[in-house]
TrEMBL record:
Reaction(s) catalysed (UniProt annotation): dimethylallyl phosphate + FMNH2 = prenylated FMNH2 + phosphate
Keywords carried by this UniProt record: Flavoprotein, FMN, Prenyltransferase, Transferase
Positions contributing to FMN binding: 12-14, 38, 102-105, 137
Native organism taxonomy: Bacteria, Pseudomonadati, Thermodesulfobacteriota, Desulfuromonadia, Geobacterales
Origin: domain of life: Bacteria
GO molecular function, one term: carboxy-lyase activity
Function: Flavin prenyltransferase that catalyzes the synthesis of the prenylated FMN cofactor (prenyl-FMN) for 4-hydroxy-3-polyprenylbenzoic acid decarboxylase UbiD. The prenyltransferase is metal-independent and links a dimethylallyl moiety from dimethylallyl monophosphate (DMAP) to the flavin N5 and C6 atoms of FMN.
Name under which the protein is recorded: Flavin prenyltransferase UbiX
PANTHER family the record matches: FLAVIN PRENYLTRANSFERASE, FLAVIN PRENYLTRANSFERASE PAD1, MITOCHONDRIAL
Family: Belongs to the UbiX/PAD1 family.
Class of the enzyme per the UniProt entry, highest EC level: transferase
Binding site for dimethylallyl phosphate: 167, 183
Family annotation (HAMAP family): ubiX_pad
Species of origin: Geomonas paludis
The keyword DNA damage is annotated on this UniProt entry: no
Length: 201
């Protein structure tokens, strides 16, 4: 069976814990994972998760591996590395997930404004008709946010807001995080057991 390749992009929206948990699960599934982190994403990782990450690409890659393991194949690319393979349609991954997705990133993807590797990789997914999943973490949404999301949804982009459910009776913050991550994994057909499904045992 072919190893699936996923790009995970972390932006400066609140909720970087979702991305960390998602990467753990993808690596556990033996997937190949390429990670992008914006400058604001590093700031949120520091503020919300206490992770003082940064530096050269190899340094960040090692920081990721120490925190998340390397059960599959983990690679980090700096957002200014426009020569990375994922910047080309000939090397498009199986899916790209922006978790969490800031409204600024969402709007630039919607407008085709590919000014960095994250935006270029998203543009590649659109032009190659590959799965692109955005996980916005913002509230309330204004009309501009909603119009951009509707436009992208009509182009086939999956919009999976970071909105945990409660029917599975979560007991911890980890349960809430796992619910959202499970929904994201569902959107790219990755099997998991992160939450009890409605009507399940």
């Amino acid at each position: 069976m072919k190893q699936r390749h996923f790009v995970i992009a972390i932006t400066g929206a609140s909720g970087s814990i979702y991305a960390l948990r998602l990467i753990e699960e993808l690596l556990r599934s033996a997937a190949r994972v390429s990670v992008l982190i914006t400058e604001a994403g590093f700031a949120v990782l520091r503020e919300e998760c206490g992770l003082e990450w940064g530096g050269a690409a190899q340094v960040v890659q090692e920081q990721l591996r120490q925190r998340l393991g390397d059960g599959g194949e983990l690679r980090y690319y700096a957002c200014d590395d426009l020569f990375a393979p994922i910047a080309s349609g000939s090397s498009a991954p199986d899916a790209m997930l922006v978790v969490p997705c800031s409204m600024g990133t969402l709007s630039r993807i919607s407008c085709g404004n590919a000014g960095n590797l994250l935006e270029r990789a998203a543009d590649v997914m659109l032009k190659e008709a590959r799965p692109l999943v955005l996980v916005p973490r913002e509230t309330p949404f204004n009309a501009i946010h909603l119009e951009h999301m509707l436009k992208l949804s009509r182009l086939g982009v999956r919009i999976v807001p970071a909105m945990p459910g409660f029917y599975h009776q979560p007991q911890t913050m980890e349960d809430l995080v796992d619910f959202v991550v499970g929904k994201v994994l569902d959107s790219v057909q990755v099997e998991h057991t992160l939450f009890r499904r409605w009507g399940g045992e």
